[in-house]
Amino acid sequence: MTSEISTSHPLPSYLNPNDLGAWGIYLQQIDRVTPYLGSLSRWVETLKRPKRSLIVDVPVELDNGTIAHFEGYRVQHNTSRGPGKGGVRFHQDVCLAEVMALAAWMSIKNAAVNLPFGGAKGGIRIDARKYSKKELERVTRRYTSEIGLIIGPTKDIPAPDVNTSPQTMAWMMDTYSMNEGATATGVVTGKPISLGGSLGRVEATGRGVFVAACEAAKDLGLSVSGSRVAVQGFGNVGGTAARLFHETGAKVVAIQDHTGTIHNENGINIHDLLNYVEDHAGIMGFTEAAAISNEDFWSVSSDFLIPAALESQITIKNADQIKTKILVEGANGPTTPEADDILTRKGVYIVPDVISNAGGVTVSYFEWVQDFSSFFWSEEEINQRLERLMRDAYRSVSNVAKHHQVSLRTAAFIVACTRILEAREVRGLYP
């Protein structure tokens, strides 16, 4: 008598697709695309299990002399197509499952745009607003030392993310270089220009969002000039996208950030608002627009809605309220699968994050290439290369969507998963 033997171990509880945290959402997305992968579906478990997850203790001495401990993470989801690539975030809600999901989405994003990278992500559970610059430097340096054994210019290349900056990357690069005994500019991207950073990097993600929005508008026969735009998040991504829409003649009618929500039916002057935010660290109090509740933001009528804050902002609770034609995801994973279905039934055209916010990692790729060659391009060249690559990636995904009669999100996952699993299959298993 023979017993049935499973070819795969059960998933740990935090890998459960029924847990609709960020990782559960990602697993559902993989399940949805699996029927389109043909013979490659035999490798699909590869996409459901991160290659490497590192949890580190980050002890530092605070300015008052006390010792504080923070938990840090670096997850390399997949490296079949190249070294890991993904940001490092400092946030009080960072956890392993979230970092795993963000790393996985980086795998998808890099493959969808056809960059020669795998997916990785990092983070430290810390409320960065509560610590001095010197304390954050010590946290960054200790974290870099702890994850130094798995990062490197040809292994895994971190970049800025939520609450991290070019200065953070400078500290990371310096720490890694000191430990290596040689300056290694290519270990991180998003660095200051003086350390090998790329021109155009700060605005790259927001510019990519705008380019993707314009391509989607072409598909729907919608003019960007004169359109109405609502933006959630007013940092580098949302602020840049809002400015480019404004300069193209669109009306940005509603904006939300961590301080609240403002609305002006006739359009908000984005240049004035950017100047205001520089002085006041938030949009609330801006006199050229009225304050409304955060909940009312989602019901503002628009042609373009740009969620450019954190993940899981559009859920089953608010999807029915949304009144827009095109949703362009500036953040990672801002729409849950249930909300995605609701919006699709309502006829909302969704440009998924893995395409629309890939501008940042694309210019990070340009920075990485420039660091290796020690030859740097002008900002105009960077922007031209970015826009061309983003348009080509959108068109490729759009064509697959039309061929299979599926959403852009499913099409992006078909393109990306096929590229990743083809690489996995050709490389084979070692040993």
TrEMBL record:
> Which named protein is this?
Glutamate dehydrogenase
Residue ranges of domain Glutamate/phenylalanine/leucine/valine/L-tryptophan dehydrogenase C-terminal in the record = 198-428
UniProt cross-references to Pfam families, sorted A to Z? ELFV_dehydrog (PF00208), ELFV_dehydrog_N (PF02812)
Species of provenance: Advenella mandrilli
Q: Which family does it belong to?
A: Belongs to the Glu/Leu/Phe/Val dehydrogenases family.
Which keywords does this Swiss-Prot/TrEMBL entry list?
Answer: Oxidoreductase
Answer whether the UniProt record assigns the keyword Oxidoreductase to this protein: yes
